[in-house]
Amino acid sequence: MLENRNPISREKFLLEMDEILGLRAGTLRGDEKLEELPNWDSTALISLIVLAESTNNAHISPEEVVGCSTVADLLRLAQVEGSSS
Amino acid sequence: MTSDTKTSPSEMWKAVRLPATAADLLRKRHTLKAELLKQKNLLSTRIAILGGSTTTEVKTMLELFLLAQGIQPTFYESGYNRYGEDVLFENAQLWNFKPDIVFIHTTWHNVSQFPELMEAETTVENRVRSEMARFESLWEKIHTELGALIIQNNFDLPRLRPLGNSEAFESSCRVNFLLRLNTEFASYARKHSRFLVNDILYLSAQVGLEAWHDYTYWYNFHMALSPTATVELARNVAGIVKAVYGRSKKCLVLDLDNTLWGGVIGDDGVQNLILGRDHPVGEAFLDFQRYVKGLQRRGVVLAVCSKNDIENAKEGFSHPDSILRLEDFSVFKANWNPKPENIREIARELNIGLDSLVLVDDNPAERALVADQLPEVSVPDLGSDASRFAEILEHERYFEPDKVVQDDLNRSGYYSSNAQRSTYQAGFHDYGEFLASLEMTAQIGAFSPVYLERITQLINKTNQFNLTTRRYTSAEVEAISQDPSFVTLYGRLADKFGDNGLVSVLIGRVLGETVELDLWLMSCRVLNREMEFAMFDALVEQCQARGIGKIVGVYIPSKKNNMVTGHYASLGFTRISESSPGQESWRYDVPEPYSGRTRFIRRTAGTLPTVANA
Fold first, then answer.
1. Which residue has the higher pLDDT, A19 or B22?
2. CA distance B17 to chain A (A)
3. Fewest CB within 10 A of the end CB: N or C in chain A?
4. CA distance B214 to chain A (A)
5. What is the second-level CATH architecture of the domain B440-604?
6. ipTM confidence score
7. What pLDDT, on a 0 to 100 scale, did the predictor assign at position B12?
8. Where are the domains of chain B?
9. What is the per-residue pLDDT across B123-154, written as a single tens digit (0 to 9) for each?
10. CATH 3.40.50.2300 for domain B9-244
11. Which domain covers residue A81, as residue numbers?
12. Is the pLDDT confidence value at B409 over 60?
């Protein structure tokens, strides 16, 4: 993975995820199961990959995303500041 | 494009537009779509996307770009890589979908046979023919059985060139083979009116092949294009669709100082303007002028809106290196009035809506003022670097042409001669005298193949003098022109100042002894010339020839056609019903004998059938 020079905050990342999924801002808390989220589809997955790369310089692969089952997993993958390793 | 919501779609779009990165669009797609769908009077269209690879994101992006143009698509999406099977085996869902447009999203991955290394030229040529036959069989089936307009990707180039630079000229190599196929696609497009090429060869060059093809997205999702590339593809296709529906802009309004030349003409004088090849900035302005001249040559109307004394402003065009000349501009506003005021006048003089204008101005304060007071006017963020003006202007595809028709080439001439008519009219006290002095002649006839492209163009972009605002694709217009159950009329109008071209269209559906008018429109170029009387006289003649005793006119109100509210009443129709709010039906019983309404227009021979379109 590329070195993460300017990590995005957890709060900002969750707000971005709200937008990607078409949810009201502040909906996601970070512990949700992905399969239970509305609009979690291939386009959302791609949006997340593009988002992580453009904001965090974090290159994440589709296999890694597919391997995630919760939003918390995504936060770790995207090297979000404050996410547990 | 206006909306009743607090944030207009154009403002919403601007908020994420510059640059409209894949990240922005993907992240905000739900919000953007919801906002854009709040627009009133969206034009509906049915688009079938037939993919040679994954098309989910293509559809997502294309929908957003189309909504931003006021076009609401309904999509059919083929299964993965089933672009051929869906057509050849007449997929019932596709056939029942009845698309207006079929977009074939294929790429170099979908070439079925590349030459073998060092194959003979004749064998390579046979492969080209075979590949073309495969695609032509799809296109012909779509045309004849679905009647849809086709937008077909040409071929991009692969990232890898196993034979290096030789691939450009060795006929058995992939690059050369793909370029030959693109030449064949272009040739097909020139010969077929309902076939357009989406030039992904150009787009991929613009984006760069490494950004165009991303192996991560290809191997994981079979997306032939990266998300970034998909944005540019969707923008381009939306531009094509917008042009097909007549929604391209009509007029480029230009500032002068530091927009068309470096320097301030009022302070520096013409001799000190920075323009020409002796100076890098001057050369950039020269190239921008050349670009603008190119737009004007193919039908974009030019206007000047400058804060300058008019004599100074005009003098700038006497610079020996100036490519643009005064006569290139249909309207010239140089004064100290606020620019929004001048721009309103420009629209009024040209008889076009504000939403048909694009302002190019290097001054951010002026741009902000116009954008604030006239949100319908497109105001790209030009910046101050002249070397980028043309690129920024082009990026939004404001002036995308459908196919350039002869009338486009003459368009700025029409607007210039219209300005002459306005000045001439000011010398008359009696309007009838003025009309008589114009020595107008009209050619009115049934739809003729030579005019079908212009007729289709007019149908899809005329808003004000339009009784029903019904839109038709070119396939539908062609079908109507050949169907004896329709009465069709086109009208051309000329006068002593010039030829206005084809300016009016009428389509009537014959039902027994009645003809119901599906469509009646007229270009704003010829308002108040009584051309509608000439068209009506021709319509009555057709009715008499065909034994039709009753004409039913329909008026469907829209945001822009208020001017024709009283049209049928003025012709002597009687209102017979009102259905959905505002929609009216009017009736006219053709009298015997009939006294023509035309007073000031002499009709010349057009093609009117003596029997019903037989």
1. A19
2. 16
3. C
4. 12
5. 3-Layer(aba) Sandwich (3.40)
6. 0.85
7. 53
8. 9-244, 251-395, 440-604
9. 999 999 999 999 999 999 999 899 899 999 99
10. no
11. 29-85
12. no
A22 and chain B in contact, CB less than 8 A? yes
**Would you say the CATH fold of B440-604 matches that of B9-244?**
no
Contacts of B17 (CB under 8 A, 6+ apart): none
- How far from B542 is each of B505, B545, B608, CA to CA, in Å? 15, 5, 8
Exposure of B31 by Cβ count < 10 A (0-12 exposed, 13-18 middle, 19+ buried)?
middle
Which of B60, B220, B227 has the CB atom closest to A62's CB atom?
B220
Contacts for B351 with CB less than 8 Å, ≥ 6 apart? B418, B524, B525, B527
Report the number of distinct structural domains present in chain A: 1
Confirm whether A6 is domain-assigned.
no
Residue written as token pair 């009784």? B467
**Fold classification of B251-395 (topology level):** Rossmann fold (3.40.50)
Q: In this predicted model, what pLDDT tens digit does every residue of B40-77 receive, in sequence order?
A: 888 899 999 999 999 999 999 999 999 988 899 999 99
Give the minimum alpha-carbon distance from B34 to chain A in angstroms, rounded to a whole number.
10
Residue in chain B nearest A47 by alpha carbon: B26
DSSP string, B371-436: HHH-TTSB-----S-GGGHHHHHHHTTTT--SS--HHHHTHHHHHHHHHHHHHHHTT-S-HHHHHH
Task: Return the pLDDT at B5.
Answer: 38
For chain B, the average pLDDT equals 89
Residue B80 CA, distance from chain mean position: 31
| Residue B386 · residue B285 · CB < 8 Å | yes
Q: Is residue A36 part of a domain?
A: yes
DSSP B60-85: HHHHHHHHTTTEEEEEEEPPTT-HHH
Over residues B462-495, the pLDDT tens digits come to: 888 999 999 888 888 999 999 999 999 999 998 8
pLDDT at B610: 38
Flag whether A45 is in a domain: yes
By DSSP bridging, strand B584-589 and strand B550-555 are antiparallel
Report yes or no on A54 lying in a domain. yes
CB distance B253 to B358 below 8 Å: yes
CA–CA separation, B501 vs B520, rounded Å? 17
Distance of CA B386 to the CA centre of its chain: 27
State the virtual CA torsion across B591, B592, B595, B597 in degrees, nearest 10: 30
The residue of A1, A43, A48, A53 whose CB has the most chain B CBs within 10 angstroms, and thus the best one to mutate to test that interface, is A43
Residues shown for chain A: 85
